[in-house]
Write a structure and sequence with these properties.
globular, alpha+beta, two-stranded antiparallel ribbon
Length: 175
């Protein structure tokens, strides 16, 4: 086994161990199935080096050299978030349920990061919907996503594979 594959396997084992330790029942089952999906679709989980708040485990999802999202695990809960919805500016989709889901995820900038975040465009169009001062670092994310939520996230991750990513944005470009 190459070092690269061993590294991926170790991170996969770490996220699965955290899921087993901190989640149970349907929540645990859904999280485990999603991690399997990620690894089966050339996305790896990479353990994040820092914890904050009530978090027990953090991993970023890696596509190539880019981290479009992360999984946060607390006691009894997990959270999935895609960082930068501005990457979907040129995308379109006819699924109204999916578009409503996307709109529930995006949020306007609150200047939670470096001062440079504030120089965002007044409006960004995401899957045909205009979002004022779209936050490029965080979205709303979902705690304990359902299977249906995860289907929408999978679709977004699939769109994300073909996008040229903005290197200025912190979370997607740094572990």
């Amino acid at each position: 086994m190459s070092d690269a594959n061993k590294n991926t396997t170790d991170h996969k084992a770490l996220v699965k161990a955290a899921i087993h330790q901190y989640l149970s029942g349907e929540t645990q089952e859904t999280a485990l199935e999603f991690v399997e999906y990620l690894h089966e679709n050339d996305m790896t989980t990479v353990t994040h080096p820092h914890l904050f708040g009530n978090l027990k485990y953090i991993c970023k999802i890696k596509q190539g050299n880019y981290y479009p999202s992360w999984i946060l695990i607390e006691e009894g809960k997990w959270h999935f978030e895609i960082f930068n919805y501005s990457q979907f500016e040129t995308q379109s989709d006819d699924d109204a349920d999916f578009i409503a889901f996307v709109n529930s995820q995006v949020k306007s900038c609150t200047h939670c990061h470096e001062p440079g975040c504030g120089d965002l465009p007044d409006n960004t169009v995401v899957f045909g919907e205009t979002v004022p001062m779209l936050c490029f670092q965080h979205s709303n994310g979902i705690k304990n996503p359902t299977v249906k939520d995860l289907e929408h996230f999978k679709k977004l991750l699939a769109y994300s594979k073909d996008i040229v990513h903005n290197e200025r944005i912190w979370h997607p470009n740094h572990l």
